[in-house]
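User: what does the whole thing look like in 3D?
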Amino acid sequence: MSDSDSIKEKWKKYRNPGYQDKFDYSWGMVIDLDRCTGCEACVTACQAENNLPIVGEEGFRSGREIKWIRIERYWDGEYPDIKLRFIPMLCQHCDNAPCEPVCPVYATYHNQDGLNVQVYNRCIGTRSCAAYCPYDARSFNWFSFTWDKPLDEQLNPDVTVREKGVMEKCTFCIQRIRQAKDTAKDQNRRVRDGEVQPACVQSCPTQALVFGDRNDPDSAVSKLAQNPRGYQVLKELNTNPSIIYLKNL
Amino acid sequence: MRQLKKPTYAQVNDDIVRTLVETGPRYYLALGTALLVSIVLFFLPWYYQLRTGVGLAGMNQPNVWGSYLANFVFWIGLSHSGTLLSAVLHITQSPWRKAIYRSAEAMTLFALIIASLCLFVHLGRSWFLHWALPYPNQMELWPNFRSPLLFDVMAITAYLTGSSVFLYVGAIPDFAAVRDRVCGWRKNLYTLLSLGWRGTDMEWHRLGVAYTFLAVLIIPLAVSVHSVVSWDFAMSIVPGLHHTVFAPYFVVGAIYSGTAGIVTMMFLLRKYFSLESYITTTHFNNLGKLLLLLSLLWAYINMLEIFTGWYSGSSAQIETLNYKLFGYYAPLFWGMVLFCAIIPLALIVKKVRTSLITMLIISVLINIGMYIERLLILTTSLSRKYLPDYWGIYTPTLVEISIFIGSVALFICFFLVFVKIVPSVSMYEVKETLDTPDRRR
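Assistant: Here's the predicted 3D structure for the full assembly of 690 residues, as structure tokens:
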């Protein structure tokens, strides 16, 4: 290979920071909208798992709620022939994420598992990632939040408590992924399908959310993604999300 | 206006040095008020915000950018015209530049400083802004060179350095002239600032070469700064921001608001420093013509932006467009059209251009309109992104309004200090436009 070819190859890698060809796991999710009842159990579970602060009534009213997953509600049709549709919306972990190139300090980048990760300690709070995100999946810590006693006792020790001025978003419960990968490494094997579940997937009563490795063709996620009902939200923007939605018919 | 007699060489020196050394109570009153206002309305709220969080501003989840960023773009825009205009007019050898360029360049410098301060105010954790600079550090991390925000930091530092050097080099002979006229601590200050200028042929020759070189260097820098600022927005995929026309749009807007700023500033300088014989109606007339041209260009680009948005046919673009023209912010939008596109058309009449008071009113209105434009670019686009469930409305809070007023006061503060240290009119270049003393005799 000539020098220019190797430079081209490197440049290509740099331009497409997906890394899936290089690393084993490519975590993804399938959300079956036919099964979603809009119960918001996922929202609550996420809140408990990831130490999401409670912004209070005033904060909620001014549109500053910190939610890593939310249920979007849409009315379809005109009364009386009307249908209610729910879409759980969370960080899509796009392979071509618009939020990544804009961060001046690399606080958000693509990691080796195909996850779009946020480094809280590196974030300087320009908020441009949230402005660039077409899914509005990012939440900003407008203030430093505290937990009243005894609520502080229930904080998850595996997850950082974020300070004011820091952007945050869904991590696919990276602390659980790390743990599962560590266990698998100790036992000299790969992470099994279904071994790791984010809090939202675990708590979904109708199993509308399925999580797994998209690189493994036998995983539940890969099989469900083949479903002809499958689509990606705002696919026309070429962000290439890791979440496949199954259409509600 | 009555025609004033042209001053002589000696009068030029007398008049300008007088503005430096003679300070009346009105000056102290103005400086004191500006200082007080900037402390109370800028630094105290900012300190409060640093302690509690940026949540004090009215921003919320879809509108993560608000008036702080609009302030930044506004001040960068205001900074635009001074040095750029001065450099362009120097290269095209327009004689009318000579009386106004010094204060125009100072405006550039101070507006840039205020703009950088606005960036600090905007950030969630401004105490870490240095992470956006490429310096060797123990984390072994570079900043992200793909980020338009990083381009921004680079462009602004380059422009700040370039324009301050340009301002300084152009003022060296004047510092020397003042050095020879004053005593006391001022003598020491100007001795230092004039770098031992003696006015030899060689020195004048080198000054001319350096000055022209810097002027040529400054022009692409100035154009690049505002193009880069526009990329902060245009490189997103947000409908209403994702336009290829944004770079020229921002550059024209910047020169437009900057030129209006110069008119306002010239009016005040002329009035309060009795520089009637230096800043004449000719200057206002010429700047008025420039403003008219820029207002037409600006209106054209605005129509173009709306047209391309509509022609794209994408539902998100059209929704944003509808929202901009007829939504919550529509009164502001039409106000902006009135201030920036319709009222400046009056400049086509020569009487309007040569009447100082109408020029003042029009220039202030243009800058109000341009501020609205900067605010609208952010709010109308971010309020209406792709997912309708997450649409929102942004209104500035008291803290934001106070910080904006405070930043204006801080700018005035800087300027008041500047006029007492640097000759606000270029003495040696004004003399070039006058008749030589012996011919008069």
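In plain terms: The radius of gyration of chain A is 19 Å. Chain A is about 25% helix and 15% strand.
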